[in-house]
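Have a close read of the entry that follows and walk me through the local backbone shapes. See right below:
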Amino acid sequence: MKIGIRKKINVILFVSMFAVGLSIGISFYIQYSNYMMQSVVDKLYNGLFSIYNIIDVSELQKYTPETRYEDSYITSWKKVKSIQKNLNLAYIYVLRLNEKGELIFLMDTGTHPDPNQKTDSDEDDNLFTIYKDAPKEAMESIKTGKLVVVPKEYTDKWGTFKSAFYPIKYKDKTIGVIGSDYKINDILELQKKAKLILFTILMIGVIVIIIAGTIIRRIIVVPIQKLNVGSSQIANGNLEYSIQIHQKDEIGELASSFNLMAKNLKESFNTIQEYNEQLEEKVTKRTEELQETLGKVQELKTQQDGDYFLTTLITNPLMQNRNKSASVKVEFFLEQKKKFQFKGKTHALGGDINVSGNLNFNGLRHTVFFNGDAMGKSMQGAGGALVIGSVFNSIMARSASNKKILTISPETWIKEAFVEIQRVMESFDGAMLVSCILGIIEDTTGRLLFFNAEHPFSVLYRDGKASFIETEISAHKMGMPFNTDVNVYRFQLQPGDILICGSDGKDDLVLTKNAEFGRVINEDENLFLRLVEEGSGSIKKIYDNIILNGEISDDLSLLRISFMEETNREPIEELNQKQKPNYDIVMELIKEKKFSHALEELEKNPDELNLIYLYRKAYCLNKLKRNYEALKLFDQADEKLKEHTKVLKLLAKLYFDMGNFTEAENYLEKLLQIKPNDEDVKNSLLRIRSLKN
């Protein structure tokens, strides 16, 4: 069936107009909707962060139905209400978990603390009532400790809203959540208008097509049919045929040109023959020009590969396994995704990094390890690895210089390292973010301290079974704003234990790649545990298992740490016992008032995490008039250890002996709260207060 030119042109015009109109409308609709919804989410973020920064978290546990009338409560409510109005939010409410795990309204901008007053939203009074229909995202925020945005809007009698929740933490425990709602009725109305605009564009397109079809038939289709007849005549050799079209437009000019073409056809044949003879020369010239261009492109690529190579020369020395421990063995595996050729050799570039070394804390050797993944591809990732590698190696070099013996605890060192790295990475304003694990292992006991900054969880391989050590991250990626605190994990390794750390390249495997499903990326976090078990903890076998299960889609780094793997050692409990000071000898020396000898016995095997060790060492230092050293010892101790009654009493004596009566009085008051009937404490307080007066 022959389709006429008229129908073809109409179809082409219709499809073109339809495609243009539809693409413009859809693009406008999607971009406009996304922009408006993103602005809503940004306002929710700003509101939640602002509220979290102004509320006093420690006071939330004290709020009761009676406190709603107090000035402090009303002042806090007004601050929250002010943020709600400034950000044009519908509601902001603070929820607290009760003993049954239910959420209770502590504060709501829709409800004034004074029942006799109304807010602009005129909400029901729900203060200190249970939030019975709390969204699941509120509990999810509490469970994960992260900000959660409700994916779908909800509608009630007050309108349609978008919501988000942010957890409230107090003393490393999530005690509640802040919720925020934004009314999106106007946005939904704008979306309807966008759809109307899309429909209008389509209708205009249809009308234009109908009018254009009629005009095209008169001024284009009929003349083209005549031209078709003329071309057939000329194709059959009738060069005398003349086309009769008298339109004064482009088609009329085409008819005149067509008639002229027949007259000059023979001359054209001669011209074509001459052109063919010169064609080979022109092709050769054009080929030379293309080769010259290709050479310039290759030169630029060589320069780029040179930059890549220079970067690898700088970063590779930063990724060194400097561990010399006999009991803790460290192995590296690193395969960067970006490959390039330079001077006939293949090199790799990426953002993953492994580092290890040794430090001496209070006379005990420790093994330090670091596994990191800088965000970004190729040069951006390599730049991040270069920065964090330089910072961490600088910290290690400074801590280990001249066989230095560090007098701080490993936990203090790891927290100070976190702060130093975070400050450097934060200076890049989010352009360089790094996920990482930094850990310290005591070589003789296997005591492990580490933090995880949004890195894949570390894996413990013990007795043929693999499992994750941590259940949540310690901090956000290095370089993230508000990343001011870190939670240090503690874990006891046993002889024969193997610890595996790695970047997300080990998990983000391309399982399938075909036209039907595209790229299917692994989402099973337990897959790596199975690969570790199948590889019996061997880093080479683990890598072989990874590439057998899928295609690696990102930089891959693995760090294997084994504790007393090659030799049979006595149980770790016996080792720990041997490392503790002989407290019986220490007590005998103290009874005999041989405080210097008791101090020497204690310092043979330091145990800064042990309450008995800290107390008796500080006691001896006090007796030897070395009060400043005793106070410094407690400054480095865990805060929980300093809550013991004996420690409080000793701290009060240390400050009293140093003449600091205010601090001595503070510690005695804390002790009196624990032992309100202790006459010695009361008498000591009276004495100090008389001296102060």
